[in-house]
């Protein structure tokens, strides 16, 4: 009898479900036709399950289909399940009205069969929704990766690409961004630190690297996130807009290339510029290294180079002596000795820059060998 009056029962369901916030237009994309067709198929399935009637092939996957469709339509899961469980409130009174009084007591004892049928439907709707949500998440992740890849290989001037990437990442294209890289050896630690900082969404996999593109707070004083300085990674100069991210990424890759043996601390452009410059000098670097260092013997050169690096880093004879565990006069004597052997004075900024380039180039060459 319920199957014969199915249209009437569906109308009752539609009147009820329209009361669920966020389920129907204008706040939802689910149309009346869509909702009506789904309700018709779902209620017929439930009636057949309760009555032990044959299930047509067209109804076999309806529960899963409902969950998948509502997920695609971005209907909140809570609203979907409330709507599905409402089937019991619709079917139970509909059946009671069609049961003769003399068999009503026996029929009420079978109410559990209606609830079991509804739960059967709910479980499969729920599973379909979750499965489709997972598929959608993978699709979004794939699309994010595709757009990020296009952005990084661009010159940052394609406004449409910038807009699409910003939407996919959930950021503003005119925000500032911190770009950072972690090679494979440091990826696990980098990911754990990003998770602790609630920055997992800003991570992207690029070949064998983990790439961070983190939107920074809109403040006048732009600073790198503090957590980045606690893990081994390459921290690029801050990109002032999304359009500058490709340039920041290219700089980060070049910094990383200068540390072929790996990194064990946070590396910035400030700390890596010498290595990068020396790598770019080529034959000029060979000539500079010979001009500055050829008059220093190998045995003496190692001790002098160590002192020079510490002195250039600290700018202080006293601090250098403390770090080298020697007397400050020893540092002064070594700097003078280098000046005497080479003619380049470590205390003169121009000479100091040339000495650093020569030392860095010689170090790079020795490492490559």
Taking the sheet with the most strands, its summary is: 5 strands, mixed
Please compute the radius of gyration using only Cα atoms: 35 Å
Please count the helical segments.
15
User: Uncertain spans, ≥5 residues at pLDDT below 50?
Assistant: none
Distance between the termini: 89 Å
Please trace the helix and strand order, writing H or E for each element: HHHHHHHEHEEEHEHHHHHH
Number of strands: 5
Number of domains: 3
List keywords for this structure.
5 strands; Arc Repressor Mutant, subunit A; alpha+beta; five-stranded mixed sheet
SSE layout and pairing:
Blueprint: H1 6-17, H2 32-51, H3 62-72, H4 77-96, H5 104-108, H6 111-152, H7 159-169, E1 177-182, H8 187-196, E2 203-206, E3 209-215, E4 233-235, H9 245-257, E5 266-268, H10 269-281, H11 283-293, H12 298-314, H13 317-324, H14 328-342, H15 349-368
Parallel strand pairs: 4-5
Antiparallel strand pairs: 1-3, 1-4, 2-3
What does this structure look like?
The structure is a single chain. This protein is an alpha+beta fold and 369 residues long. It has 3 domains: 6-135; 175-269; 282-368, PucR C-terminal helix-turn-helix domain (Arc Repressor Mutant, subunit A), CATH 1.10.10. 62% of the residues lie in helices and 6% in strands. It contains 15 helices and 5 strands. It has helices at 6-17, 32-51, 62-72, 77-96, 104-108, 111-152, 159-169, 187-196, 245-257, 269-281, 283-293, 298-314, 317-324, 328-342, 349-368, and strands spanning 177-182, 203-206, 209-215, 233-235, 266-268. Strands 2-3-1-4-5 form a 5-stranded mixed sheet, with helices on both faces. Strand 4, helix 9 and strand 5 form a beta-alpha-beta unit. Helix 11 packs across helix 15 (349-368). The termini are far apart. The model has no long low-confidence stretch (mean pLDDT 90).
